[in-house]
Amino acid sequence: MVDLTNESELTPQLEAVGEGRLEADVEIERFADQGRCIAHIDGRVVFVRFALPGEKVRIRIDEPHNRKDRFWTAEVTKVYEASSYRVDPSWPLAGPLAWGGGVGGADLTHVSLDGQLVWKRTSIEEQLRRIGKVDDPHVPVLRVPQDEEAGVGGLHWRTRAEFIADDLGYVSMRRRESHDRVRVKDMPLASKQVLEVAEHLDLFNLRFEPGDHIRITAPEPRDGQTSDVESGNWALLVNHELKEGREYVRERVELADGKACEYSVLASGFWQMHRMAPQVLVRDVLKLAQDFALKTEKLSDDDVIWDLYSGSGLFTVPLASRIVPHGQVLAIEGSQQAVSSAVKNAERNNVENITEIAGDVLQSLRHLKKNLSELAAPKLVVLDPPRAGAGKKVVEQIAQAQTPVVIYVSCDPASLARDIAVFREKGYELSFIHAHDIYPMTHHVETVVVLSRTGVNKYGEVSFC
């Protein structure tokens, strides 16, 4: 795939090639966002897919290229001088169009696992400097230990896989930035359990109606749970309607104390996608709560915790049972279906000290003193907002409550950095930060931070195994 012709001098001039396409030879300068890198042509910024800093490459400009935007987007077609982090695409179908790829879902498939960690660390640190105004941030990005032990090479982690039926009704994926659909007969990012279900259904040979949306949900078996698809703990959904399996699937999160939390989750709903992510993140949040709250005597086991954007109760249940067993957890979530699941999950785990609110987080917090005054002064806030972040007004509500410690779980470095900037304006400092690579082969990354009013620790001083 990689053409190393050692052309040392590149002049970034546009050339017209067949069918009006524009190409140029450029040198890649640095990482950017969304799995892209930056080059320049005649002073114009070009965001390039499937590139790496320091490389000399040929790129094809995306159409339309007569637009007057301040930047263009492009894709690598040939590599002259490769980065040490470059590898042959682990999933060629998700690689560059010029190399027979083009489907989305793995925009870092050309990058080694070490290189992916560097990319994600750089991205988070850049957003913290530029948007969060954090001086000299250092953000470790951790691989999921079970991924390393299994030697899956960044593959086989998704417990949810989605497809679309092509014009003939076969399972396919959309080609990037187009309406073209490419038939697929495999999904390398899918977990082994998802692939077992797909084989059981003969999914890749089935015919659906063209344009159908197809989803498989198959939780990771744990602690003696059978991996046999005959157990039925999986779902096939077509256009969001259950066709086979279960409407609700069982998820299990094993904790560091040797016990576990059991969950029932809507198969069509949101749940952390990596097979080990729920366990990794719950253990992380609990340890941070212990280190930054309980150990500093700011939080007692009979105090109040807020769990904002609480979903189906992933963090709510262990926080209530492990951190404040004699206190209360207030959980606020916008999805009524998720709240219904969360209530059932609390009952399933025999946890009674949870108050669930189904509603907008901001509006719920604004009315809290009037409706639930006894829960209006939390000693710890845990929040896991959607990609857009919590936003200034939610952060202000947390600050007004005089919360000593905040644990923030984020799937987007830019929105995280914006919210951190607001927290810092309100008197909080960044006490701890690291990230988890729960989205290998993609530019996505999950970051966990602690913000505190009194500076319990400087970030990076707490070690995690």
Distance between the termini: 37 Å
Number of helices: 10
What can be said about the biggest beta sheet? 8 strands, mixed
Question: What does the average pLDDT come to?
Answer: 92
As a whole number of angstroms, the C-alpha radius of gyration is 24 Å
Which runs of at least 5 residues are low in confidence (pLDDT < 50)?
1-9, 455-465
The CATH superfamily of the largest domain is known as Vaccinia Virus protein VP39
The second-level CATH architecture of the largest domain is 3-Layer(aba) Sandwich
Helix/strand structural class: alpha+beta
> Based on CA inertia axes, which overall geometry fits?
globular
Remind me, CATH topology of the largest domain? Rossmann fold
Give the amount of beta strand, in percent.
25-35%
Q: Can you list the strand order of the major beta sheet?
A: 8-22-23-21-20-17-18-19
Number of domains: 3
The tally of strands reads 23
